[in-house]
Amino acid sequence: MSKKVRVRFAPSPTGGLHLGGVRTALFNYLFARQNEGDFILRVEDTDQTRFVEGAEEYIIDCLNWCGITPDEGPHAGGGFGPYRQSERKALYRQYAEQLVKQGNAYYAFDTPEELEQKRAEITNFQYGHAHRSSLRNSLFLPVKEVQELLDKGTPHVIRIKMPVDETIGFTDMVRGRVNFETSQVDDKVLLKADGMPTYHLAVVVDDYLMQITHAFRGEEWLPSAPVHLLLWEYLGWKNEMPQWAHLPLILKPDGHGKLSKRDGDRLGFPVYAMNWTDPKSGDLTKGFRELGFLPEAFVNLLALLGWNNGTDQEIFTLDELVEQFSMERISKAGAQFDFEKAKWFNHEWIRQSTAISLTPNVISVLRQHDISAENHPQLTKIIDLVKDRCTLLTDFYEHASYFFQKPAESKIDWTSIQPKWNDAKTDFFIAFIQKTQETASWEAASIEAAFKALTQEKGIKIGEVMLPLRVMLVGGKFGPAVFDIAEVLGKEETVERIELALAILGR
RNA sequence: GGCCCGUUCGUCUAGGGGUUAGGACGUUAGAUUUUCAUUCUAGAAACAGGGGUUCGAUUCCCCUACGGGCUACCA
Length: 507
Fold this sequence. Notes:
Layout: E1 6-9, H1 19-34, E2 38-41, H2 55-66, H3 89-102, E3 105-108, H4 112-121, H5 143-151, E4 157-160, E5 167-172, E6 176-181, E7 189-191, H6 199-209, E8 214-218, H7 225-234, E9 243-247, E10 250-251, H8 261-267, E11 276-277, E12 284-285, H9 288-291, H10 295-303, H11 318-324, E13 335-336, H12 339-352, H13 355-367, H14 379-386, H15 395-400, H16 423-438, H17 444-458, H18 462-474, H19 482-489, H20 491-505
Parallel strand pairs: 1-2, 8-9, 10-13
Antiparallel strand pairs: 3-4, 4-7, 5-6, 11-12
Helix pairs in contact: 1-11, 6-7, 10-12, 13-14, 16-17, 16-20, 17-19
This protein binds one RNA strand through α4, β6, β13, α12 and α18.
């Protein structure tokens, strides 16, 4: 009987939630659901200097928006709390001290300034076997002096003592066997002078205490894996160590390198899941959500960044992803982010969504432009008419607003009809208005029939008046079938718009 | 610099000892839509290089090149 699967997403609350972070969270979620396990949110706020107000709530909101809400976490509770590392501070010291007692770690009294000095003096300086003896630590200072320093409360850190010459390796779920030479790894700080653990200690202690079975993180963590491996061993928990998976990085669309918030600003696309306002500077960074992405599309595109199911299928619901996700099919190489493809995913999702499910989003987009759409009797019909041509939810403003308000005179594309305008056309439209008054029915097919009959009657080519009608009703050369538009607009509104246009063209 | 990871069309990727190397985004050209978008059809577009192993390598192995990550009392 194997243990219950438990995975964690462990972000640091230092700002907006990056696309890559959401993907890591997503893979955690998929794996947990697939294996009927638990998905835990752990807030890694051990660096007090980088703490940003509101970031934690923001992260939780992002996960909720994506539909990948954690089962346990600071917001949800659970039997393994607290879930903020800052609230677990008291817990870590004993493990660090245990390591010191065992001889696997030591006290170091060097100040940050002294170390900076060393780094300047010695090229490729590492706090490790090569330089330990010339530094101020409990490995080389006389026992008495160490005790005195400790008694005086001298600020110090606890560092791991890396073995001089060992090969340490593990089997990564995506990369297979990975080995490291301990001689190349420095003596990482485990406990900082302020009593807080570093990531290295905290991740091991908490993964152990929270009974994490599988640990997914970005590839940038691979080089510090040997430290974590050793810690699991030294703490005596080797058999409980989770299986590691180092996920491929998400790279810049141009050139290479990790995708960063800056790239989004520079290239004009979002990197954060939702809008993020920096509480200090007040700077707003746009998110996928506010730009008009459906959470389903966002999750879908993220899942395909580094994973596929081996077929040509590209559109997946969250449920399908849960069912089909597999660690074996995660690619090893980093993936450049392509915003064009991201938009394609959203377009597909909008097209495949029902008008009913899109309704709240469309109402909200229109409301941002002071258009109240919620009471429109034909709202779902309007959505069905235009959704195929909306790539982003925000496009519903451009493609649907004319159903709710007359196009502004200044916005109407007069240049496409005015040059070829003549009295015959004026006559035609006047006659058309009259004709509309004679019949009670008002459906696309009958309007079209009447319109066409009139062109014959008047001896005017249909193409000559179709485009003008469209521009009168819509304001430009776009939109669905013009008689469908007229039907939704209603007879009265259609006539008003034609009359209005006629008046302007007649000036 | 050192260590680690990686390398199939511009991008995301499938494939895997013998294939016309497949799909998608983007792109090009046509068709349709009496508008625009969609849609449809067609096209251009890739196995980093060199050595092995093999009857045969894009596929397996090695080297090189290139790219990336890490190298903090940050995560």
